[in-house]
Amino acid sequence: MTVIEPPLEVKKHALWEDALALVVGAFMMSWGIYLLGAIDGVSGGLAGVAFLTTYLSGWSFGVVYFVINLPFYYLAVKRLGWTFTVKTLIAVALVSVGSSLHPHFIDIGQLSPMYAAIFAGLSIGMGMLVLFRHGSSAGGFGILAAYAQERFNIRAGYVQGALDVTVVIASLALVDPWILLCSIIGAVLLNFVIAINHRPGRYFG
Questions:
Q1: Domain spans in the chain, listed from the N-terminal domain onward
Q2: If you ran DSSP here, which 8-state letter would residue 44 be given?
Q3: At CB < 8 A and 24+ separation, what contacts does 50-53 make?
Q4: Pair 25, 134: CB distance under 8 Å
Q5: pLDDT tens track for 128-175
C-alpha cells in the first residue's frame, strides 16, 4: 500500500488569501444565519444563543452575536495566540454586519423551513470550514472547538456538535417544534460538513 506523506515544506497561505477567506467564510455564515432568522429558526453554538436572546429581547442579532463573543477572546489569546484571535474577531464582526445587510439586498416572500434549515446548515458549515482552514473561527464555541482539536486532537465538528445539542435543547421553550426539528437537521448537517472535512493533519495549506 502506498503511503502519501505531506510535503516537508508547507507553503502557508498568503496574507491576501487569509483576508479573502475571512470575507468568504463570514459571508457564507451570515447568509445561513439570515435564512434561519427568516424562519424564526435557531442554530447551535453562540449563534444559537444570539438567536434566543434576539427572540426574547428584540435586539439586533448582529449586535448580540458580536457582544457575547467578547469573553471568549481571552481564551483565544491565552491558548491559540494573537493571530488566531485577531482573525476571529474580524470574522465575527463581518458575520455580525453581514447578517444585518442581507435583508437590504434580498426579500424572501416564501421559504420552506426545511429547505432554509438545510441550506443554512450547509452554508454555515462551509463558512466555518473556510475560517478554520485559514487560522480563524466563528468565535465562541468555535474557539472552544478549535482549541480542543489543537490541544486534545478531538475533531472540531464533534465538540461543536455537543455544544450545539445543548443550545438546541434550550430552544424548546422558544421555538416552534417543527421549526426546531428543521433547525436540528440543519445543525446536524453543519457539523457533518466540519467533521468530514476538517481533521488534524489532513490540511497543510
A1: 32-197
A2: S
A3: 51/171, 52/167, 52/170, 52/171, 52/174
A4: yes
A5: 899 988 888 777 776 777 677 777 787 777 777 777 777 878 888 788
Q: How far apart are CA 28 and CA 41, in angstroms?
A: 17
Phi, psi angles (nearest 5°) of residue 176: -55, 135
Amino acid occupying residue 9: E
Residue 21: CB atoms within 10 A of its CB come to 20
Residues 6+ apart with CB under 8 A from 186: 36, 41, 43, 117, 118, 120, 121, 124
Q: What is the DSSP letter of 4?
A: P
Cell digits for 34?
A: 439570515
The C-alpha atoms of residue 141 and residue 192 are separated, in whole angstroms, by 16
| Cα 205 from Cα 82, distance rounded (Å) | 19
C-alpha grid cell, residue 46? 453562540
| Number of Cα atoms under 13 Å in the Cβ half of residue 30 | 23
Query: What is the rounded distance in angstroms from the CA atom of residue 196 to the CA atom of residue 125?
Result: 11
